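Quick start: what a row looks like.
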Amino acid sequence: MSKVLFVHAKGGPPLGYALSRVAARSTVHLLALSALPPTAAEAAERLCASVLVPSGPDRHDLVSLIAAHARAVDADAVVTFSEYAVVAVAEACEELGLAGAGSSCVLARDKRLMRRAWDERGISQPRCRPVASEQDLTDATGALTFPLLLKAAWSAGSTAHQIIRSAPQARAAWERARQVMAESALLGYAELHVADAGADFLVEEIVQGSPGEWFGQPGWGDYVSVEGVVVDGDFRPVCLSGRMPTVDPFTERAGITPASLPRDAQERVVALARAAVDALGLENCGTHTEIKLGADGRMWVIETAARFGGAMTVPQIEEVFGLDLIGMLVDHLLGRPVSWPERARTPDEAHGASGSLVVLAVDGAGDAWPDRRLWDFPTVDKAVAVSPGSRLSVVAESSVADGTPVPVYDPAAGANTMAALCLLSAADPETVIRDFRTLVDALPQILPPAGSPA
């Protein structure tokens, strides 16, 4: 049987889910660069032929570590679904002569290089400047139009985002962004291969979205993501995922599959995503491309990743469209024939809808809860009335234990202050949005007060 080395790090789809899909296609060996979630430890022991947790000096040269372990287990393919490990895995695959994202993978990781590649192709994107110092940021505020968004070049999950509305705010934004990146690194949410990546930033103009001109119903956010894959250099779009409006500054609250865009609008979005992905020269990997939707049909590419969408994006696609993207990619990397979609699937082809909600201590308007609460899913499941036919569950691997205080929401830390991830299956995307609104409104009233038993 073929052998696959699975490189695990923070982020990506739940580890237990991903492992089960890889193990169904091959013998799987796990290289854990981040601690295994307690809820996934049993799955790892059951599904993996071996589990290696490196420490100390072994972590210094990550590419050599991955390549050496791949050779030791005689791996036929190496995979990762973490943003923080994609570059190292791509370089290890190059060294091993195995199919992977390719030598230009860094263009889909370092937002500064990504934006430069798009600028050279004339691809629509917000105006931006790379930033490596406070002086760089000050200079950029004089060249760009406010409001501006300062973001870390190697971050994920809206970590360290800072909105700058006037030049005097630049210094505080710079100090806070750097502080958050240092704190995130301690939590394991940081680039694993590039030294001092937390010091690299980008500042961009904030373009105005207009979701009402794109969607036929209210409740949608102003950007979508095109989920896809690159197969031997050829981009294959799979479907579009939508969002509810973000929490200030730009923290994702909910992702919904599929996005309810009309077919002609979806085709335009996919065409822009194809141009953006093609410009990066990727070879064999999943892709996740975010596109902002503006007035009068305008669009801007925000970013592309050389991996599948994180959180529950991939499980949602499997539920709604019946496509096991992880298993399909593993088959392709192992040289097996795969029937990839010829075009992006549309909402008309979906079987219901699926969405995932990040539980943050903010209400529907984005304002902080008035008091601290304990996370307790049994209470939520019992007290929140979702629509008939909808099914609500919790993703244990991505959630704190019941009885744990819900973290105070920190706009700069983004998803780092989430308490839980809930999954909803429903008849259609609009029902997902309606049920999530009900859930968001109910949480600060129904969850037990902090200091009381859950």
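That is the whole record. The two ends are 47 Å apart (CA to CA). The mean pLDDT is 95.
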